[in-house]
Amino acid sequence: MLMGMAEAGEHELKRILNGLLEKTAENFRNDTIVLKSFVTDTLGSTMEQLHSQLRTDFSYKFRAHEQFLINFFSTIQSYLSGTVSGLPHLVSSFFDELLWRITQILLNTNSTDTYTKCVIDSLKSKQPFLRIPSIISNMTMEAFPPIRAAINSMAFARETLLAASITIHPSHECLAEYQRLRFCSLCAGVINANLCESTCVRLAEKCTPEQLALGTQWKKFIAALQEIMNLVDKFPKVHRPLQMHLTDAIMNLKSVYTLHEQEILSNCSSSSSHGENVTSARSDESSRGGGGLWPFGGHRRARRQSPPAFYRPSVAYQQPSGPLRPHAFGARPLPTVALGEQGIASLQAWARDVKHRVGSSLSVLFCILMHVHV
């Protein structure tokens, strides 16, 4: 009889632990989806606004250069998902190429010859973007790393929990404690015994760390993740003025060009030939792998302002495939207007909910499942 009780207890405990780990992993999966969706919506909104502004300012001349703008926001999205690094370099490279692109538009040329390079070098020496590149670099370094860390930490937590759920080997101490709670009341003739909360927590502390093969490191990881969740609202707060700063940078470049146009063009005309090393900007786009792919969603009105070739679904972020387990926390999307006050408040509320849930997930969920089975 004792052997049968031991076998039954071990089977039940493994099922409880497996359900605990899979449920917690699914919660992390859904939280990752929610945060990625928020990032995609935010970046897409900013890019559509900037794209519309540039199309208004430069009309058809901007069409040959719009893939450059899409590539930049796609790269930022890749940085936030953890596939590329070097954020300051991404920002500085963007402004270097922005200077090239806008200068080509102002010169009404697609060439990259010596003459164009001379004009660009002359403009660059006059700091056409003022301090805006350094401002944006500082803004992004403050706002983007916490979002990147949160997304990748939750993805790591999910994979760790799923790996732990594959092979479960409860320790002897864990099994003994579970069997005592599971069967001692029955042996004493108490059919419906109520478990004390402290008893559940004690059992959870004995049984769950072994499944993670991490021990105290898991608690440290969760504590660090909770700290990161305190910082995720920096992303919309800092990201909101990004489009304004980018627009100001372009407008200032136009002003500098207009102010010094005669001087720069005269100097470059005397030292350069107009026909050297001419290449097409459209060919340059092909070499960069561009294809007119619009990687973000957006409102229908905003999409009508975009080239038809851009009306394709997002491919930058693919949500994990497979059905959601019905017992897991649902992926509740954040509001579409991510940069408004309501969107920021919703993000903050979501972050508080995640902090509370991950902080008590293992012990509390373990006790919930224990009450179901015991």
How much strand content do the residues show? under 5%
Number of helices: 13
Radius of gyration: 28 Å
Global outline: elongated
- Low-pLDDT stretches are 274-296, 298-338
Class from secondary-structure proportions: mainly alpha
State the order of secondary-structure elements, H for helix, E for strand. HHHHHHHHHHHHH
What helical percentage do the residues reach? over 70%
**What is the strand tally?**
0
Pfam families: Glypican
Main location: membrane
GO biological process, one term: regulation of protein localization to membrane
Protein name: Glypican-6
Break the fold down into its secondary structure elements and pairings.
Blueprint lengths: L1 H57 L7 H16 L5 H21 L6 H11 L7 H35 L5 H16 L9 H16 L3 H14 L4 H6 L2 H30 L9 H7 L12 H5 L36 H33 L1
Helix pairs in contact: 1-2, 1-5, 1-6, 1-10, 1-13, 2-3, 3-4, 3-5, 3-10, 4-10, 5-10, 7-13, 8-13
Keywords: Cell membrane, Glycoprotein, GPI-anchor, Heparan sulfate, Lipoprotein, Membrane, Proteoglycan, Signal
Membrane topology: Lipid-anchor; GPI-anchor
Protein name: Glypican-6
Describe the structure.
- Helix 7 (197-212) packs across helix 13.
- The chain has one domain.
- It has 374 residues and is mostly helical.
- It has 13 helices and no strands.
- Residues 274-296 and 298-338 have low confidence and may be disordered.
- Residues 268-281 have a biased composition (Polar residues).
- It is found in: Cell membrane.
- Belongs to the glypican family.
- Residues 268-304 are annotated as: Disordered.
